[in-house]
């Protein structure tokens, strides 16, 4: 905090009578110990000054952060920070790191044997069941090259391998996989790509194997000839026209029956 002081001189009092001379007081020293608000982030200052005349009063006018500006530096001012300075970060040497590592390597087997002999608590190993999906990278057209994508999530420990099979036979040509990478909520995922030319009746499978896992996760993919978009549009349009015609006929019949009943009444 920076604190500055301002001075104000009192105007002399006018009087027509002659006043008896009085002895002027000797200038003394005044001090102020607290000049800024007592809240976090502020500093306190202590300064001393002499008043040249008794009619001059001095008071603190402004407070600001950091060291005082040049026009606001008071003679004999002492600045004291409320918060201590942070100690510089100390970095261990290579010898100290090696010593600590050696101690940890020696203590770990001892603690493990002690736990096995006296505590005898078997903690379950954390493992995740992979969730596997297989889909095409581009819209499916039978007889044209495409890329199959195998997505495996919930992999833990983050070590896995993927194998592809076609008609029950493994193949590796045109297969590539990404490394296991983390996603949200402590989850790990891996992708594998296989370049294929799907035909009617083909059966592809993607097998995900984890580290030391007893079970493998397999996902199958069978190509299905999709319905052409124009044919689908024609079918939907025909159904809409047929439904509209049926409702029109029903409406005409109901209108005729209501008119006949009205005429009979």
Verbal overview:
The longest helix is centred in the C-terminal third of the chain and has 36 residues, at 229-264. The chain has helices spanning 94-119, 229-264; strands spanning 2-9, 29-32, 44-50, 56-64, 78-80, 131-136, 146-153, 160-166, 169-171, 175-177, 181-183, 187-196, 204-210, 217-221. With 265 residues, the chain is of the alpha+beta class. Residues 1-18 and 27-51 have low confidence and may be disordered. Strands 6, 7, 10, 11 and 12 form a five-stranded antiparallel sheet that branches. The chain is 23% helix and 31% strand. Residues 124-208 form the Ig-like domain. Residues 15-32 have a biased composition (Basic residues). Residues 1-14 have a biased composition (Low complexity).
How would you summarize the topology of this molecule?
Blueprint: E1 2-9, E2 29-32, E3 44-50, E4 56-64, E5 78-80, H1 94-119, E6 131-136, E7 146-153, E8 160-166, E9 169-171, E10 175-177, E11 181-183, E12 187-196, E13 204-210, E14 217-221, H2 229-264
Antiparallel strand pairs: 1-4, 2-3, 3-5, 6-7, 7-12, 8-9, 8-13, 10-12, 11-12, 13-14
Observed structural traits:
single chain; 265 residues; alpha+beta; 5-stranded antiparallel β-sheet; 14 strands; disordered N terminus
**Uncertain segments:** 1-18, 27-51
| Biggest β-sheet strands, sense, barrel | 5 strands, antiparallel
pLDDT average, as an integer? 75
Q: What's the Cα radius of gyration?
A: 45 Å
Distance between the termini: 101 Å
How much of the residues is beta strand, in percent?
25-35%
Morphology call = elongated
**Global structural class:** alpha+beta
Number of strands: 14
State the helicity in percent bands. Answer: 10-25%
